[in-house]
Structures are given as C-alpha cells and as structure tokens.
Amino acid sequence: MWNSSLELRVTAMPAESWEAADGRAATGSDVACYDVLWTTNSCQTPLRDCYSLRHGHWYGGFEYDQQSWPMNDIQQPLQPYVTSYFSSGVVNGYGSVIERLFVSSNGFGLFVYPEVPLFLSFNEKGSQTMCFVAKCHDFPYSRNPDNPPFLRYEICQGPDIKLTHQHLASKHLAKPSDIPNLQLFRAPIWSTWAMFKKNVDQTKVLDYARAIRQNGFPYSQLEIDDNWTPRYGDLDFNRTRFPDPKGMITQLSDLGMKVTVWVHPFFDLDSKAAAEGHRKGYLVKGKSGDAPAVSHWRHPWESAYLLDVTNPDAVTWYLEATRFLQQAYNVTSFKFDYGEATWLTEQHRTKNLLDYPDQYARYYVDMALRADPVLRAQEVRVGFRTQDLPVMTRMLDRRSSWGRKLGLRTLIPTALTFGVIGYPFVQADMIGGNDKSLKDNPELFIRWLQANTFLPFLQFSTGPWIYDPHVLRICRKFVYLHMNYSDVIISLARESTRTGAPIVRPLWWIAPTDHVTWTIDTQFLLGDNLLVAPVLEEGARSRDIYLPTGSWADRMRGVTTGDRDGSGTPSCS
User: Fold this and answer.
1) 49 to each of 10, 38, 57, 73, 469, how far by Cα in Å?
2) What is the mean pLDDT of the chain?
3) I want to staple 430 with a disulfide (CB 3.0 to 4.6 A). Which of 188, 247, 374, 461 is the partner?
C-alpha cells in the first residue's frame, strides 16, 4: 500500500550536448538520464531506494581503508555518508575523500545531490545491493529536525561506462581551476613523519635535509610534521625543540629547500590559541551557551576544540597565524590535515548553519587554499565537492605492508578512485608507508617506490639511505625516472582543468567495452598512452600484463609489441 505521506517524481532529463574527456562530442541521446525525487511531509518517514550491484562492476564513491577496484567486494552497513577518518572512532566509516557519484561497467550511473541527508549502505553483509536512505532526525542530519527529508538523485544509462561517467562528471563535478605548484610534480616531497614520528627537532630536520642532498636526491620541499608546536593549535615553533626556527629555515633555504609545516583545525584545551579562540567566538560551540564543543581526535583519544571554519572572522584569524609563520620564519606552505565532517559532535553549533555536514570540509579546504593561493604548495587530506581547488589531495596514511589494509595493494585502487570522483591531483602518502618495520623490508620499499613512480607526486619520509648502496642506487634511478616523465604529468594536470579527466586512469578509460579491463586493479594508465604495471607481490620478479587493443611499445626496453587484440598477457620483470 502506498504511504500517503510520500510523493515520487521521475523526470526525463532533456537532451544536452557535451564533450567527453577524450574529445568525443556527445548528446543526451547517447546517455539517457532521469531525475528521481522522493519527498515526504513527515520527518518520521525515511526514504529508501536500493539498487543491485550484481549486474556490473562498480566504481567511484569513496576512499576506503581496504580499497578495491572495482568496489563490489566492499561491505558497509547503513551509516551517514559523510567524510570520516578511520581512526576517529566511527565504526565502518567512509573515508576522508568521498563523492556521491557511482558508475558501473554496464554503463549505468547514479549521482545523489549533496543537499540530501544521505545514509548509505554498500553491499551490507554481502547483500549485493547499494541503498540510499534519506533521514532528517538522525545525526549528523539533525540540525533541522522539523524539515522533512528528501531523496533526489540522477540516474543514467549510456552505451558504455566511460560515456556515462563523463556525462555525470561533466554535469556534477567541477573541473580544477588550476594546478598545484609545478615543482611538486617534478621532485619529491620529504616529510619528517615516518622517519622521526613525534620526536622531531631542529637538529634532526637539518641532518635529514643534509642526508637528502648528500645521497643525491632531488627535492621540492621538506615537510615538518607532528609536534613542532608548543601545544596543538598554537601556531608557533616549540623553542625547546626548535631553538632557532628562523635560522634553521634560512639554512634550509640556502640549500634550495622550501619548508612546509603540519597544521590542522584542532586546539588543545589548555593552549593559548584555544583561550583566544574561545574568547573571540572562533571555535565550534556546544549545544547551548558559549562554551566550545569538545571533540576527540587522534589515538589514544585526545580532547580538543575545533576551529569554526564557517565563521569568516575565525578563518581570517587562523590565516593570520599562518601568515605569521610565513613572514617570521619563511615557512613556504602547509600540510593541512583532518577536516572531516565526523569531527563535528552531535551537540555542535557553528557560526553559519551548514546546509549539509560536509560543507565543513569545503570551508576547510577553501581556507587551506587561501593560506597559499599563489605558490599552491599545500596539501589536504579531505575532499567533498572540492574538485575545483588546485591543491594536492592526499590519501589516508598508508601502512607498511603488502596487503589490502591500507597497504601497497590499495595504492592503485585508491588513486583510480580519486580520479573517477574528480580528484586528479592525488598524493599517495609516504613511500613505503608509516611503520618502523619498513627499515627491515627493503623489497617493500623498492616496490612501493616503483608503484609511485608514475603517479603525480612522490613523497618520501623514510630515507633510502637507511638501506644498502644497491637499494640506494635503485631508488635514485626511479626518482629520476619520475622526473623524466614529469612534463607528461604536468601536461595531463593541465588537461584536467579543461576536461576534468584524471591523470591516473583505469584501463577501461581507453577500452570501455573490454570486459577484462573492468577488473584490473594492478595496472593503470598515465593519460591515454602510457600503461604502468608495477610488481606488487612479495618475492615476485616478474608479472603478467594485460594490453588492451592497440599498438604497444615497451618503453623500458625499447621493444614494440605490434598490434594487440587485447588477449595477450606478456611477462615483465
């Protein structure tokens, strides 16, 4: 029986002319789309639509700690579809970079509008269904409990996955307005985090910089990570650890090395900045009164206040602190960490009402861009509707393992997912991951570097010089190989501003009807013409490669394969 409180409207979308990322002209007759709108007059009535995952391979959606490509094997129970950090206490949360776009190998695609109070389940308990649920009275969509929910999405069917993806992306995902700093594409970023963790200090930073140069490695910038401040939120150097920060950065500048520092939106409860932010009303408030809301971040859980990035005065105040670092010490730019919607507590109040929870992420990345709008050497870790901003978007921290739990095998699937949902400037975190055990595993380190070589950016932390001279030579070889292809990567980055096409592309990008390409998760394309197939298995010295239809040449060995019909699997070591 039809619930009298519900109304469903399905509207055929008018035919539109548009240009696919490969330059093909297309029209609405190529991709048929419908606008689906569920409404209700009762806030107690959730709205639900479910779609089967059985009849295709699915892509897009969200970053995940066990990222797979395609994503059909992921199992997620119904929960708010907002940006979250896997260590934030959110059980089975979605990742830090998400979008509401999903496409399948059979040319079927969906886009859910950002204002929908969306809960999502994906293949819950192996059900092979994806369910969209709109609810208004459950956190984090409980700010306006008297407004009934609505569920609106666009559903499309095209002749192949690429045309459907490009139709939805061209309509719903913004293209980058510019690209990050060119030097970031060319030379590695060096971070202190995995090398020193929180035990970083001035002497270690300077010794680290000298080791980079002495071992013959190029660099774009050196990033001072966690624990350089007196308290979290106080944006100044800890003078016990860094007695002369200006002198330190002067020495690094003399080496031609730019310096960035790690920042975030959190404030220790007893920090000077928290007291000032509370007094001026610049922190996210609790349910009532003027007291700031308390968030719990990191692990073990630490209490902190959160910057209210919806407040223009608070953003100006924070940016004044970053400009102080630039002017007083010659800090170049910033690594903006966190910013996910799940740090907002159930009792939070912001200066300006958020239309949807992940507007917080958008405000945060906007602020990050304003901290370095000209050089554009900053990075962020969160993304939702921020595809237009010309900043590096970093994957979640990787673990030093071969496996599928934030390990090496998730590197390519995550890079491909970022590209499909509109984030071409993907930064793959630190080569080798973050664990101390990496020092005992040079094979993993080398394979990780090789897998990174043709991604847009390289980021080191563990110094290759901790291994033997043979490993060191291999590492230098692949760093310079990346540099040799950096002009190609930069050209593709610029292309993304015109077409929205990713830099790192799945094989089905050039062969959308080739069913073999739909499940390949260990190869990728750099643009349309370079196919990359790194070795990702421990102990392996060769691997099979699938070549889609076309004429291919082995650029590493100067061998031409001739025309391929897509059925060959040559071996490569």
Assistant:
1) 13, 9, 19, 20, 58
2) 93
3) 461
